[in-house]
Give the backbone structure.
Amino acid sequence: MRLLVCIKQVLESETAVFLDQAKTWIETEAQARYGMNDADQFALEEALMIKEARADTKVDVLTVGPGRAGQVLERALGMGADRAVHVLAEAEGYLAPLIIASWIAHYIRERDYGLILTGIMAQDDMQGQVGPMVAELLGVPCATSVIFEEVDSEKKSVYVEREIEGGLREMFVLDLPAVMTIQTGINRPRYPSLSNLLRAKRQKALVIDAETLPPVEGREKVVGIDYPRKSGTGDVLHGTPQEKALRLIEILKDKAFL
Amino acid sequence: MGGSIVIIAEQHGGQMAPVSYELMGLAEEIQALYPMEVRTVILGQGPETLAREWADSMGGGVVAVDNPHLKTYNSELYKDILGRILPELKPVFIVMPCTTQGMDLAPGLSVRLRAACLTAVDGVRLEQGEICFTRKMYNGKIEAVVRPTVKTTLLSVQPGSFKTQKPARRDSGLWERRSIGGQPEKTRALGRKQIREEDAGLARADVVVAAGRGIGKEGNLSLIRRLAALFPKSAVAGSRPLCDSGWLEYKQQVGLTGATVSPKLYIACGISGAIQHTVGMQGAGFVVALSTDPNAAIFNLADVCIIEDLTTFIPVLLETYAKETGRSAG
């Protein structure tokens, strides 16, 4: 069986983000650091564990993004993925999930994947749409927020537990092929190994220029971005740390918390 | 604008999810801009009681879809049934909650209906005469204004963002039961199980001191514990990444897939304020937030904002408090 893991390069989560001049998209400092989306690391680890538990299983990774996104493919190969696919889309700015999902589905249709995994959500635009959209475009079953899975190769199915609200899990059996979006915490993602990293340096990703794929129209436009309007009327404390500490203690005493 | 707003109410085991009522709040805000009728669809196995209660309290136009396989949620069957009945209702907007179920259902359903899909929507506004919706990105630090460009749009609504005006008496509404066949072929639902009991200490605490990624390393949790120890009936909690790292137990997680708490005081330490977390603590009475990032979204919810590094500030706070109490005691 061949598995596909869809991964995204995102800004590291503590990176400062600013508005561009026209307030149409974000800007970052030139030295801003990028990495593999957190949840996608869990998805990749889960795929690698499936591969290690059974013979004849291969793990491919795919990313959609500009040239710099090749970095996450290298890391994925370093973690143990077998092949890398880069759907090259140079344009920065908002890329509708439907467009990304359509490109991925187009790639998958011409191939034979038994299971497609991705993270529950990208930590930058926080949509969580690409996974279930790919499933619908392919007409295959899907489970999101997967916190436990077990593949049954004989029955060509996968048992999944979805993490939902209130400390509950929802259990399903999906026929393969299927799409799973993986919840964080399902495993402990490994670090890349040196030997794999050396191999990754030599191994070229299959690059597909997005412009050669069938064109897809997004169904929404981001007309602008901004810093959220302050909804609260929070009291910002000023002064030295000692002064702030004293003021906070005063407030907490006034409110009878201390 | 013709057409309708269709609410997909969420219910579990015959109980309406409270968040479903918030959907009416968004529908009302859309109606204020574009008068349109509101319809509600409730899916279930024998959903008549729910439909009647909804029609009585929230107004009419309720379609109760009955199917023997709808005892619990099943994405395949939901998409199949909604894909068949929604076009009849000519929706311009379809609204559902951005719960784990809504997140599972919305994107695929939008593809089937050729609709736009906007997730975690928390506001409505007009921009140059066009209806737009707001949603957060980058852990809540950035708000995007999004405009649908097709005639049907599916909106998943961020819990806690809208309130229904819910007049004392609405016209007691009509509802209809529709028996719709079909069964899932490739997705078998096996039910639900409780995996984690709630943390009784956390649920009962008057004061919750919560840690986020900003604590940097596990060792700094001792600062959080010492801060919590200043308060009687306090508990330590955290955001999901800390539980994923194994630094805190999952029962200590506050947020969408964790606990929902409403203590009298919530002290957020190094927490960015992503919606996944704040949805679990927005009912807190008084919020103190501590972060190095002046743009952190948590400051939007906070009553007291302290822009400091918690690893240096909490020791100063503890020391200052010890001196203060020493002085007043002496």
Summary: The first helix of chain A runs from residue 38 to 53.
